[in-house]
Write a structure and sequence with these properties.
Largest sheet: 2 strands, antiparallel
Order of helices and strands: EEHHHEEH
Strand order of the largest sheet: 1-2
Helix content: 40-55%
Radius of gyration: 23 Å
Number of helices: 4
Strand content: 15-25%
Shape: flat
Structural class: alpha+beta
Mean pLDDT: 85
Number of domains: 2
Low-confidence stretches: none
Distance between the termini: 52 Å
């Protein structure tokens, strides 16, 4: 399967003197009678997106090497890793995509590293008064409103 793309304008809007030609090819075992060419190309592009999520799971959560030789231990670590991944993804969608987000550019989703830097690594002081523990944030903390909004959504 082959896809040919001919560009006469670059990404900045500049006209090109000679067209830029990009040729992409895929070898597939999918039956062509079941899928048309556009569907097969989208399936392969979705595969690349899946690889990106897998890479993020391994690197940002530091699960590149599993800690034990025992399968059950590694299964438990991967289960907790998946739970942490899902919680961080939820925090990124709910806390960093709203109007109080400290991020400066629009996006459809936030990387796990960005979520941890903007919402988890906040500097705060634990204060005990009236038999209660509270967190004190700086007056100029850019992620405080997003953190407060997330905290208010928990039961």
């Amino acid at each position: 399967m082959v896809q040919l793309i001919e560009r006469t304008i670059d990404r900045n809007g500049q006209l090109l003197l000679t067209p830029e030609i990009e040729l992409e090819g895929w070898s597939t075992s999918l039956p062509e009678c079941d899928y048309d060419n556009a569907t097969i190309i989208e399936l392969y592009r979705g595969h690349a997106l899946c690889e990106q999520f897998h890479s993020e799971f391994k690197t940002d959560l530091d699960l590149e090497r599993l800690p034990a030789e025992k399968f059950d231990t590694n299964d438990l670590v991967m289960t907790f890793g998946a739970l942490a991944y899902n919680i961080l993804r939820w925090m990124g969608l709910r806390g960093l995509m709203g109007e109080h987000a400290p991020i400066r550019h629009p996006a459809k989703r936030r990387w796990l590293r960005t979520v941890m830097q903007e919402l988890i690594y906040l500097a705060a002081r634990v204060v005990r008064s009236a038999r209660r523990l509270t967190l004190r944030f700086s007056h100029h903390c850019p992620g405080f409103e997003a953190f407060r909004q997330l905290h208010a959504e928990f039961p």
